[in-house]
Specification:
Oligomer: single chain
CATH topology of the largest domain: Rossmann fold
Largest sheet: 7 strands, mixed
Distance between the termini: 41 Å
CATH superfamily of the largest domain: HUPs
Order of helices and strands: EHEHHEHEEHHHEEEEHHEEEH
CATH class of the largest domain: Alpha Beta
Strand content: 15-25%
Structural class: alpha/beta
Number of helices: 10
């Protein structure tokens, strides 16, 4: 049977890290592309975590290094950021990335509909689906689970990842990034262990305060795991006894974590919006539903209110909105900020 050729073939994946099945898929895409193979690397511009340990550039370089130069020359890599609350924004970003590379109508998208995680392949009906089929291989999730153990050896990976990836993983193991991810992984495992005997997994309720004034947003820098050193909104778990309502919990956490010199009545009076953020995997600690409040303080001529970080924060600070990037933020706090700034629309 003759292999159908396309002007371009799109391959979407996270490649955390690239393994032999990923390389086989890309090689199949190369065989069916007259022109470029457009590799959309997902979860781009995230901070390093167990789920997303490697950067966009690292993953692109590893894929390129794992292929013969002639094949690698056909690849065009594009970063694709997650948007866990708006699939259409994510789809539009992928469409725009491909359109910048080719205007052809003869485009294929390659993949395998293995489970619910592959639903994205059905979101591009304008591109012809190329079913790659199933290759029996260790999944990237399993690779990460084994790799991020301080006492792990890499022998088990020699038949699973290409040699350049294995060399990279060996070197990465000596970095502080690796040690930080291992510490966070251990913390999360210990955290979940306290709920292991419960009949059902717990659901946690938290609050977050998105306080904005004069083009600045109030953020804390996390003192401890998980997300040590990352930016987050002031917030925390609802106190089942002390907090009479969600709003009370938000104001209490805001004041405790930042010491903001603004009266309680002024904070409450300037709440402009609120929204529940409840993506199932928004937190590695377990199912955590947060109620976020947007507070917009008016300029009173005295400048930005003074702050004093609480025990849960290494630092509380006002940061200019224009200086912030996704990779600076803990969990989905970047997405929460974009929602309140009105940046969710297509």
């Amino acid at each position: 049977m003759l292999t159908k050729l396309y002007d371009a073939v799109v391959a979407i994946g996270r490649f955390q890290p690239p393994h032999r099945s990923h390389l086989a898929l890309i090689e199949r895409a190369i065989a069916q592309a007259r022109g470029h193979v457009i590799v959309c690397i997902g979860s781009a511009n995230q901070p390093r975590t167990v789920k997303n340990p490697f950067t966009f550039n690292e993953r692109a370089d590893l894929i390129r290094a794992s292929l013969p130069p002639a094949e690698a020359a056909k690849l065009v890599f594009v970063p694709l950021e997650d948007n866990i609350y708006n699939d259409q924004v994510w789809v539009a970003a992928a469409q725009q990335a491909v359109a910048r590379i080719t205007q052809s109508k003869q485009i294929g998208i390659i993949g395998h509909l293995k489970d619910s995680s592959s639903y994205y392949l059905k979101m591009f009906p304008q591109w012809e689906f190329i079913d790659f089929g199933y290759l029996n291989s260790l999944h990237a999730t399993e690779i990460r689970e084994l790799y991020f153990k301080p006492d792990a050896t890499l022998d088990y990976l020699s038949g699973v990842v290409p040699p350049p990836v294995l060399d990279f993983l060996r070197d990465f193991k000596e970095t502080e990034h690796y040690q930080q991810i291992c510490r966070e992984k251990a913390f999360i495992a210990k955290y979940k262990q306290q709920f292991a005997q419960m009949a059902y997994p717990p659901v946690f309720v938290t609050t977050d305060a998105v306080v904005i004034q004069s083009g600045h947003v109030l953020l804390i820098r996390r003192r401890a795991e998980p997300g040590k050193g990352l930016l987050a909104f002031p917030g925390g778990f609802l106190d089942a006894i002390q907090d009479k309502c969600i709003e009370d919990g938000m104001v209490r956490e805001l004041q405790e974590e930042t010491g903001i010199k603004v009266p309680d009545k002024v904070l409450r009076g300037n709440i402009k919006a609120s929204k529940v953020f409840d993506a199932v995997d928004r937190s590695a600690r377990g199912r955590t539903i947060t109620h976020a409040f947007k507070i917009v303080l008016s300029e009173d001529g005295a400048g930005l209110p003074k702050l004093r970080a609480g025990s849960d924060a290494a630092k509380a600070e006002w940061l200019p909105l224009g200086t912030l990037q996704r990779a600076m933020f803990f969990e989905d706090h970047w997405d929460i900020l974009q929602y309140f700034l009105g940046n969710w629309g297509v």
